[in-house]
Amino acid sequence: MEKMSRSAKLRDLVLNTTVPLIINDFPLNWKCFEGSLHDWCERFDLEASQSPVFELMGLTDCSSPQWERKRTRDNQLRSMQQFLREYGVLDEEQTHWAAFQYKRAQELPATCRQGIDFACFGFPDHGDDFALWLGSEQANTPCHYDTFGVNIVVQVHGSKSWLLFPPEAPLQSTRIPYEESSVYCLENFYAPAPEKIQHYKALAPYAYHCNLQAGDVLIVPRHWWHYVEALSTSLSVNYWVPLKADMDLALDEFLVKHIVESFVKGESDQLKEYLLNPNQLADVVSTPSELFAQFERAVQNMESGQDNRKLWDTDFLSATDCRNLLTNINLNIEQLEVMPKEEYNLLLENNSKRIKPNSQNPSESTPISSTCEFLVSSMCAPRVIAGMKREFFRRLQNDSL
């Protein structure tokens, strides 16, 4: 193998690994994160044009995954420094976790993102297309996989637990709540119900896990399921590397979008808030013809290979080449391995204890019947959408003969 720079080697590993990679103590030199988390929060408060908006989630709301639709806005928490004072340490009086998550680069003050550059991982053309995640202990993202890209996650402060499963793991996919480019599952890893614990334990052969510490980097391969939970007050930054292999999946997402939106047209706000993730509520296309026009443009872009971003190839290295890169990259980097069964079961049992016996856990109201919910999830299941797309292109090809 010809001589390569470290960033080029790392880029090739990111694009070709088939299992998650963790890099311990990565030599990151991003100016905005020099100093403590308090320093970063202080700069944010001084320079932000408006107060940050934090979301709250009840610690005992365990009846289902802690979907974003169940969160509330905190109108009293008006600064980053106040967040650190009130949520920096989880104590017995705490009733909620708080988070300022999934914030794009343009939502942050300039000095709070100064120097962030994924060129050190081999991707200089990221165009500031990264996201920031800040949350208190127990802040979590329900288990899901990202439709697009390979995920590079940099843990800047605090620590997070990452529970990951490969694409073939038999998790129960759902598109309720619907979020463009995210496929959720119904498994509630925040608080597995005791009566369902055997179902969860049966997933042990597929479970990978790591506790990401400050200074660590995690590479999440394409379409890997992940449940992420803060173990302490945590700040991380991530970038999804855009892939050529994902271009045709834009069509899948348009099909799902059309199906979900057909169920919410003319319905109550309550139903819309149940079916759609909060960030999708303002993005409902007004007419089916507009959605079809978007679909046609996506088909044309896929057939022409056009995209405004730099797209990357994957799977161009053999397993042997990847192993050689791992041993010759001069970084503290390793492949994650399947979690020991005993550790996985202990994690499930500990999380299950969050469901307190005889406690009054809030239950979420469901404005649609379970039958209707099953119908939406069935119509939007990835394999069903893939079958629809194959049939569409079969007809398109026959029409051109």
From TrEMBL:
Cell compartment(s), UniProt:
Cytoplasm
Enumerate the InterPro entries for this protein.
Cupin_8 (IPR041667), JmjC_dom (IPR003347)
Q: Mention any Pfam family matching this sequence.
A: Cupin_8
Tell me the domain of life. Answer: Eukaryota
- The signal peptide here is none
Q: Which GO terms describe its biological process?
A: circadian behavior
Q: Does the keyword Cytoplasm apply?
A: yes
What does UniProt give as GO cellular component? cytosol
Domain (JmjC): give its ranges: 97-256
**Sorted alphabetically, which keywords does the UniProt record give?**
Cytoplasm
Which PANTHER family does the UniProt entry name for this protein? HSPB1-ASSOCIATED PROTEIN 1 (PTHR12461:SF43), HYPOXIA-INDUCIBLE FACTOR 1 ALPHA INHIBITOR-RELATED (PTHR12461)
Functional note: May play a role in cellular stress response.
What is the protein's given name?
A: JmjC domain-containing protein
